[in-house]
Every structure is written in C-alpha cells, then in structure tokens.
Specification:
Blueprint (H helix, E strand, L loop, with lengths): L5 H19 L5 E2 L1 H8 L3 H10 L10 E2 H12 L5 E6 L3 H7 L9 E8 L8 E2 L2 E2 L1 E2 L3 H7 L4 E4 L3 H13 L4 E4 L12 E4 L2 H11 L9 H13 L1
Parallel strand pairs: 3-4, 3-8, 4-7, 8-9, 9-10
Antiparallel strand pairs: 1-2, 5-6
Length: 226
C-alpha cells in the first residue's frame, strides 16, 4: 500500500473514532458513506475514496460493515501493531496522558515516564514509577524507544528533542508551545492547545445570537435522550 498523505491520515483517524462509537452502540452493523459524511462534514465521495485507499469496498445501497471498516483502518494505520513510547514531563498534563484510556485503542503503550523534579521522581502513576531525567538516554538506547512524548517547559523542548533524536527516537509528540526542529526522517506532531482556543475565540467574536425557547427545548430533549 502506498504511503498516505497527511490529510488522508487525519480523515481516517476521524472515521476510526466515529466508527468505533457506531460499532459500540446499538446502531445497525452497516453504515453508508452518506451517514459518515454527514456526521463528520466530509463529502461522501471523499469518504469512499479514502476507504478505497485502505482496501475497503462498499456494498451497493448498503454501505460498509462498521466493524470491518474499523479493522481496515486500524490495520492501515498500524494500530494493530502495538508500539511503545516514553513520556518526559510528569506534571498535570503528563499525568493526564498517562491515565488516558484512549492510548490503547491506537496501539500505544507508554512504558516509562521521566521528570527532573525530585518531588515527582519515585511517584507512581498508572502503574509506572516516575524515573529521574538523568537516566533518560540509557533507557532510550537500551529499550530502543522510537517515540517520545514531551510535556515539559518550552525552553527545554529543543535540547531534549536533540538528545532524544541522537539516541534513536524517530517520532516526537510535542505538547509544548515550542517549535521543535528535527532532522529529515523524524516526525514531530505538535499538539497545540492554543490552536483550538484561537478558533474558539474567533468564533465568539461574533455578536451573541439570540437563543429561542424552542431551540433550548430541542437541546434539552436531545441531551436527555442520549
């Protein structure tokens, strides 16, 4: 299978999340590209094209088997081949990542967490003992770690990324606001809290819309039925 473009990967992950929810509830076992497109604001023809890229072929007037589609995306993305990573920075954000139930669904298992704060070292989070930062490089080399998650102060992001790459890390999930430069062939995925906040702030610049009582009643009914 040829390598997929970033925009296709992003859409496949959205489909995967949605299909996992559909497969887990009492919805029909099959689902159409029109329903997926309506739920995710994607053109149905694009859904079919993306599914075709991972070997999925729908049935005329029936659509796709939801569980089969989930499995196909899981295989194409590599979620079915568990991989390990480490976390650097065991503060509140790092702790939230360690305790997230979503990681396993995407094949990730965090095997070690590091911090330079002596008050955090030795504490236990989600079955892991927080290790001192001085042991980071030897651990990465010994265990052939390919993924590192950074939840550290911005000033430390680039030096630490350089160190991790020199030890063999091939992917960095960066939760710091800093821009991290890495050599060609190393992936950096920036997770920007401020990007989402920027979009929200821009949306709220518009004048406050009037909420009709009928709208409120519909919203209440929808929430109570969910």
């Amino acid at each position: 299978m040829p390598r997929l473009k970033r925009v296709v990967l992003d859409r496949l992950i959205r489909y995967y999340r949605y299909l996992a929810e559909v497969a887990g509830d009492r919805s029909p076992s099959t689902i159409t590209s029109s329903r997926i497109g309506a739920a995710l604001d994607v053109d149905p023809s694009q859904v079919r094209k993306d599914f075709g890229a991972v070997g999925l072929v729908g049935m005329s007037r029936v659509g796709y088997d939801a569980c089969e589609a989930c499995r196909a995306i899981r295989t194409a993305m590599g979620f079915d081949r568990p991989y390990t990573g480490i976390l650097v920075g065991a503060g509140k954000l790092g702790g939230a990542i360690l305790t997230s139930p979503e990681l396993d669904r995407y094949g990730l298992r965090i095997v070690a967490a590091f911090d330079r704060d002596p008050f955090k070292v030795g504490r236990h989070i989600e079955g892991l003992t927080i290790l001192p930062l001085r042991g980071l490089t030897s651990y990465v080399v010994e265990h052939q770690i390919r993924l590192a998650i950074l939840t550290i102060p911005s000033a430390a992001a680039q030096p630490l990324a350089d160190l991790l790459v020199s030890c063999g890390v091939e992917a960095i999930w960066n939760f710091t606001p800093a821009r991290v430069e890495v050599p060609r062939g190393v992936l950096v995925r920036n997770q920007r809290l401020t990007t989402g906040l920027g979009e929200i702030a821009y949306h709220l610049r518009a004048p406050r819309r009037a909420v009709r009582s009928r709208d409120y009643a519909t919203a209440v009914d929808s929430s109570e039925s969910s």
